[in-house]
Every structure is written in C-alpha cells, then in structure tokens.
Amino acid sequence: MENIILGLTHVLQPYNLLICAAGLFVGVLFGALPGFSATMGVAVFIPFTYVMEPEAAMLLLAGIYCGGVYGGSIPAVLIGIPGTPASVPTSMEGRPLTKRGESGRALAMVTLSSCTGGVVSAFALLVGAPLLALIAMKVGAPEQMMIAIFGLSVVCTLSFDNLLKGLLVGFVSLLIATVGQDPILGFPRFTAGFYQLTGGVDAVPILIGLFSLPEVLKMLETAETEKGDVSRVSKMVLHLKDITSNIGNFIRSAIIGVGIGIIPAAGPDIASFFSYNEARKSSKHPEEFGNGSMAGIIASETANNAVTGGSLIPLLTLGIPGSAPAALFLGAMIIHGMRPGPLLFTQNAAEVYTLLVGFIVINIMMFFVGWIYCKASGKILLLPKSVLATTIVVLATVGAFSINQNMWDVLMMYVAGIVGYIMVKNDYPLSPVALALLLGKILEQGLSQTITLYSGKPLEVLTRPLFVVFLLFTIFSYAYPFIKNAKDKKKAAAKED
Amino acid sequence: MQRKKSLYDILICIGVLVFLCGFIAQLGGVSKESKGYPLFLIVCSVLLTVALLAKSIRNYKREEALEKDPNFVKTLLVIISYAILIAAYIFLMDKIGYIIATLLFVVVSLLFLKVRSIPLLILLPVGLTASMYFLFTKFLLVTLPGAAWFGF
Asked: Do B23 and A190 touch (CB under 8 A)?
C-alpha cells in the first residue's frame, strides 16, 4: 500500500501529469495514422527518454502505448480505415454508425470503452500481476497453436451467412501467410522469385490497402454527390442505455483483453476479434453486428485496450517480454537501470509503482485526450468526397511506405486494395484476411513446435490443462454458430406450426 | 454471356484457382518437413473454390440477368481510371520523389473528381504534401522516397 501511495504521489506531480498527457497525444497520433502503431511510437520515443528521470520515461512510453492502441479507432469510425489491425472490428461497426449520422455516439463509446479496458488492465497489472504471471508461465507452443485455431473460429461466426466465401477467404489468406521463410528450416517458400517476400507477407500494408482503397473507390461510384456520406458531425453523446445494457459485455471484454495480453505473441488485434466474436455470440441482437452495433464497438475497444496492462505482466514479474511493446519497455527499463523480474518490485519500487499507478491515471486521462481528438477529427466528415478520397490515397501510400521504408509494401497495399474492392463488391468478407494474416504465423509456428514436442505421443498434449481448456473453447466456438442456427430453425418451424 | 451476379463469382473462382496453381507449382521446391501445413491449406482452398464454383454455376443457370444499369460502363471506367491514376502515383513516387509525385497526384486527382475551384487546387496539394512531409520526415523520422530519375 505504501508503494502504491508513493507511486501516486510521483504520478500526480504536475511534470509527470504533463508527460502522461504528452505521451497520450503522441500515441493517439501514431495509432490514428495508417501504417503506424503503438509499438512504433514506443520505439521512436525511447531515445527521447534518455535524458528523463526513469519515472517520467516510463510514463511517457506508457502514454504512447495506451494512446496508440486507442488511436487506431478514430479513423476506423470516421472513414472506415482502421489505423491499426486491432481496430478492424471497430471499423465494421463504427462506419455504419457514421453513415447513419451517429459518428459522435460511436466515437464517444469508442473512447469510453477504451478507457474502461485500459483502467481494468491497469488494475490487473497493479493487483494481480504475480498471480497472472503464473498463467503466462504455463503458455507454450501447444497453447499458442490452440489460441490461433480458436481465433480463426471468428471467421465462422462473422461469415456464417456466407460461410463458403468466408472460409475460402480465410484459407487462401492463411496460405498467403505461409509465404516467406518456413518456421522449421528457415528456407524461403512460395516467394515466386521475389526476394522481397523472403521475410514473409507483412500484414499491415495489406490491411491498409484492404480497408482504405475500397472505401475510396466506393466513393467514386457516387461521385455526383460532392459532399461526404454525412454532411454533419453528430454530437458526442453517450446514451445511458448503451452502457447499462452492456455491463456484462464490458466485463467479459476486459477479462478477454487482459487474458490475451498476458499470453506471449498475442496482441490487441487478436483480443479485439476474440472479444467481438464473443459479444456477437452472446448478443440478443446478433443481426445488428456489421450494421452499427454498439455492443460490437464496446467489445472490440474494451478488449484491445485491456491488452496494454496485461502484456506488461509477464515482463514486470518474470522479465519475459511477451509482445513487441513489452520488449521495447524491457529495453527502456534496462537503459534506466531497472531489471524486470521478481526482484523489480522491491529493488525499483518507486519506479515500478509509478508506472503501475501511472497506467491507471493515463487510461483515465485518455478519456479527455481522446475526446479532444475525436472532436477535432470529426470535422473530416465535412470534407467533400474529392478531397477525402485524395487525402486517403496519399495517407495510405505514405503510411504503407513508412512501415519498412520500401516501395514493395506500397505495391502490396495497392494490390490488396484492388483485390479488396473486388471482394467487397462481390460479398466476400474482408475480416478473415486480417485474422488469417495475423494468426497464420503463430498457428504454423505453434503447430510445428507441438509436432516436434509430441512426436510419437500426440495424446500427451492433453495432459496440459491450459491446452485442454483452449481446446474445449475452440470446439464450442466452431460448433456454436451451427448449433444456434439449428436452434433458430427449430424455433421458426415451431412458430409456423 | 448475360451479366448475372453469379458470373462474377465464377470469374473470381477461376482467378483463385489460377492463383492456387502458382502455389502448387512451387510446392516442389519446399522441403518435406515444412510442406505438410501449406499442402493442407492448398487442398482445403482448392476444395472450397471448386465447391463455390459449382454453386455459382448452378446459380448462374437459375438466376435472372441483372437489371441494365445505364451508368455501369461509365462507373467502371471511372474506377479503372482512378485505379490507374493511383498506380501511376505509386510508380512515380520513387522516380520523381515524394514531393513532386504527391503534388502532381493531388492536382490530377482533384481535377479528375471534377474540382474546379482554383484556391482548392492550389491549397490542398501544397498543404497536404507539406504537412505529410513534415509529419513523416521531421516528427516520425521516416525518409520519404527521393527522386531516382534526378539522381537524389
């Protein structure tokens, strides 16, 4: 308790509060720009922290991290282009709301959900870190493989109305994810002679293209109407009913986010899809999903921000960086004389508790910083289509280039955009592409390591309790849409009788 | 051949099959140890594509032709032209550099989208190009493409 109060006094110093706010402003910008991410933001700003006190440095990076995860949702809602892959489900719900003139309501809910997820994860980090770290210790290759298979079940739920097309897109995208070095011997595979493909297909430029260019080309179809889809920015108001009817959704999504966060290699993108899928399954109005569902936004945003605190748990308690941002935090901590691990909480109590309490404060501040960003960026809806389309193309091109600073990524973005437009026009879902590209590599790596570990004794994998839990979840997740469909048909038949 | 919704699915399925043939052709060069997983994905993808193709052919025979849209060709031409314009922008970016390519693209794009306001045709290209340049190069430390044709 003493340490928490010590951390609180450090965080509440005006200079540190200013640093938190600065981190958030920078982070949201990084998240909102296509091609940039929270991880890149943290990486870019580590050198700036050299001259800072350790506490301020940690707070700045935490602010950038949390803001970066949140920021991707603003363009996702306003123009349908997710700033980061974690905002893809948000764009699926936010964009229809914007088209209906409810962008303000959507952005307000995005901001509230993100803060809620962030605050819950911050409390998990502060209170339950040692206990949750034990779970992280039990996660190995078989569990990671099962999580990836579980994640892919989202394809079934999201495209149940058009399962054949959804599955086809999912499988072909998984195949595309195998391009590059194979995980066993490291030889290049399916590169068709292009050396640029040796490192694999980068998901980010593809997702930028897939979610931005189709929007631009769709704008051209109705170019006669000069104004955007909505010529008015709606007020940022929250309906009490949206919150009260989604309490369970908030709690479930936050738990999913923290849980995914502590699992190595799983990030906010996977959490947001998981949570979105679970929200859709348990919703009384699943038909609203894809047409502007508040429950979908809450699920996606709460979960992806809940990952932030969760992802730092294995790092702070065990010294294991389970994600890219956590690895960067590790680097920054070492630079500032901290050594993550079991002794961190006693040897560097002041710094670490400042970070832990700072996480809570940052996530609360994010509500206000986010509100300012949403208000300012909402004006984008007033732009004529000609200006908006042109700006999106420039932003997508420069964003794709900036990932690895090469034109190959821009080319991939362009090809993905054209393919995406053809897919959209012919009712092929885009979200399985995102899922498969993000999970494909984890799946293959986990699979090959599991096969090596349990070759000749495959049933022994069932002695791993977490594996069995994930297996049961997976079976349920794949079977659920079919069971529900059969039940609905039975109900409909009974009504007719 | 009549224009029907399923016709596009048939064409897409054929395209996907050709794409999958590219993977199948390269399978020989993949080591035995790392062939199993992609092979499984290829088999599943082929089966799903064939199933969708069969379904689309069945639907094509049953369904009625789409209503004639007088603007269909015009819209298609607009979209193809704009896609070519974006391709040209990407091609030129590392040939004439980010600044000139973006200035040119924004002006041509606005003219293509029927913007005739002179202030907008001047302010947007300059403002957008400059703001992106400063944001990415000065703030985010990204080196944007130089002009290879001009030797820098």
From this structure: yes
State whether B132 and A411 contact (CB < 8 Å).
no
Q: Letter for the amino acid at A338?
A: M
B34, B79, B102 member nearest A182 (Cβ):
B34
Q: Where do the structural domains in chain A lie, given as residue ranges? A: 2-496
- How many structural domains comprise chain B? 2
**Contact between residue A94 and residue A82 where contact means Cβ atoms under 8 Å apart:** no
Of A372, A364, A293, A379, give the one whose Cα is nearest residue A112.
A364
Beta-ladder partners of A149: none
Residue type, A187: F
pLDDT band at B10 (very low <50, low <70, confident <90, very high): very high
Which has the higher per-residue pLDDT, A60 or A236?
A60
Arithmetic mean of pLDDT, B72-93: 92
- Residue B119 contacts A where some CB pair is shorter than 8 Å: no
Residue A264: its H or E element = none
Instruction: State the amino acid at position A403 in one-letter form.
Output: I
Structural domain span for residue B33: 1-69
Instruction: Report the C-alpha gap between B42 and A402 in whole angstroms.
Output: 32
Report the candidate in A121, A76, A363 with the shortest Cα–Cα distance to residue A260.
A121
Domain end position, chosen among B15, B43, B69: B69
pLDDT above 70 for B88: yes
Q: Within this chain, do residues B42 and B99 fall inside the same structural domain, yes or no? A: no
H-helix or E-strand spanning residue A371 = helix A349-377
| Residues in contact with A469: Cβ distance below 8 Å, sequence separation at least 6, in sequence order | none
In a shared domain, residues B41 and B116: no
pLDDT of residue A75: 84
For residue A418, what are its two tokens? 């054209």
B31 Cβ under 8 Å from any chain A Cβ: yes
Nearest to A168 among B45, B106, B140 (CB): B45
Q: Is B114 on the interface with A (CB under 8 A)?
A: yes
Whether residues B11 and B53 share a domain: the answer is: yes
Q: Does B56 touch chain A (CB under 8 A)?
A: no
Same domain as B75, residue B49: no
**What letter would DSSP give residue A72?**
T
Hey, of A45, A173, A181, A387, which one would you mutate to test binding to chain B, going by the most B CBs within 10 A of its CB? A387
**pLDDT value at B67 more than 80:** no
- Percentage of residues in chain A with pLDDT exceeding 70? 92
**Residue A311 pLDDT grade (very low, low, confident, very high; cuts 50, 70, 90):** confident
Q: Return the pLDDT at A265.
A: 63
CA-wise closest residue to A95 among A278, A198, A219, A179: A219
Model confidence, pTM: 0.78
Band the pLDDT of A266: cuts 50, 70, 90: low
Question: Is there a single domain that holds both residue B88 and residue B132?
Answer: yes
Task: Please state which of the ranges A116-125, A320-329, B33-42 shows the lowest mean pLDDT.
Answer: A320-329
Residue ending a domain, among B69, B94, B116, is B69
